[in-house]
Amino acid sequence: MFSRVLRPSLISTRNFSTSKQNNYKVAVCGASGGIGQPLSLLLKINPLVSELSLYDVVHTPGVAADLSHIETAAKVTGYNGPEHLAEALKCADVIIIPAGVPRKPGMTRDDLFNTNAGIVKSLAECAAEVAPEALIGIITNPVNSAVPIVCEVLKKAGKLDPRRVFGISTLDIVRANTFIAQEKSLNPKDVNIPVIGGHSGITIIPLISRATPAVSFPEDKLKSLTTRIQEAGTEVVKAKAGAGSATLSMAYAGARFANSLLRGLNGESNVIEPAYVMSDVTEAPYFASPLVLGKCGIEKNLGLGNLSDFEQDLLKKAIPELKKNIEAGVKFANQ
Ligand SMILES: NC(=O)C1=CN([C@@H]2O[C@H](COP(=O)(O)OP(=O)(O)OC[C@H]3O[C@@H](n4cnc5c(N)ncnc54)[C@H](O)[C@@H]3O)[C@@H](O)[C@H]2O)C=CC1
Ligand SMILES: O=C([O-])CC(=O)C(=O)O
Predict the structure, then answer these.
(1) Does 175 sit in the ligand 2 pocket, CB within 6 Å?
(2) Which residues bind NAD(+) (predicted)?
C-alpha cells in the first residue's frame, strides 16, 4: 500500500542517496491545477523521482519555483504553454495527466467530454512523439473515455503498448477502504477492497466480498455502501458547491498510483494495483482490474476473480455503460 511505502520515505527523504535505479523522470500535465499542485508536491518528496517536469498552460513557473525549494533530490522544472510541451514530456518514464476541467454540481463526468477529450488527445499526440516508452496515467475525466482516446492516438502513431496506458481509478479503492474501515471501526491502512469496472457511477464495482480483512454486511447496508462508493465523487462535488471536485484525495490517490508504477519500474516484485486498462477480461475492451506492475508497466492482469451474486449483477449493469463510454472515446480519437 502507498501509505505503508510513502511514510518511511517521507521520514528518510533527507538521507536519501540517488542510486542508478531510483532515477525516474515524472511529468505532470495539468500541474498548476487543484489536483496537479498537491500531486506534484507528493511526487517531489518521492525518493524514486529524480526529475519532476511540471507542464500546464498557466502558472507553471511559479508552481515549479515553489516546489524547487523543498529539500529533496528531485529536480523540478516548469513548462508553460504548448510550445514547451515536447520538452516537458521528452524521455519521461512516467506521465501523469490531471489536465482538464472538473465537474460542477449537476454535471456528470460525461459532460466534461467535449472539453477534456481534445486536451487529452493533444497531450497523447505529443507523448507518442517524444516519450513513446512512458507509462501514462490518466486522471482526467471522463476516465472511461479518456483512456481509449489516448490508446487510439498511440495506435495511430504506431506507438501503442497497451501495458503502458492506465486510467487511474485508485481513488475508488481509497474511498472503499476508508468507508468500510469506518463502518467496521478498523484502521483504513489495514483494509483493502478491490474495485473493478470503470470510473463513473454504476461502472464502479467495489468487491466487498473480497475485502481484506473479510467483512460482511446485511443486504441493505451492502447496497447503500456500494452506492456511496459509486457516488463518492458527486458527494465531494456537492460539498464543494461549484468550486470543483475532489483534488486533495485525488492527489493522494494519484501519488499512490504513480508510486506503484515507479516501484514496478524499479524492479520491485509483487506490486499490485488496480487500474482501468485495455483489457480482455470482459466483453468491454477497457476495464479496471487488479494488475501486477513491473518494468514495462502491466506484467499481468489478475482479472475478475470470484464475484458474489450481488457483484455479478453490478458487473452486468456496468458493461453496457462502459462500452458506450469507450465507443465515444474511440470515435472521437478517429474523427
Ligand atoms: N480519476 C479520478 O478519480 C479523478 C479525476 N478528476 C478529474 O481531474 C481533472 C482535473 O481536475 P482539477 O485538478 O480539479 O481541475 P483544475 O481546473 O483545478 O485543474 C486543471 C488544470 O489543467 C490545466 N489545463 C487545461 N488545459 C490544459 C492543457 N491543454 N494542457 C495542460 N494543462 C491544461 C488547467 O490550466 C488547470 O491548471 C478533471 O477532469 C477532473 O474531473 C478529478 C478527481 C478524481
Ligand atoms: O467526481 C468527479 O467529478 C471527480 C472524480 O472523478 C471523483 O472524485 O471520483
Answers:
(1) no
(2) 30-36, 56, 116, 139-141, 250
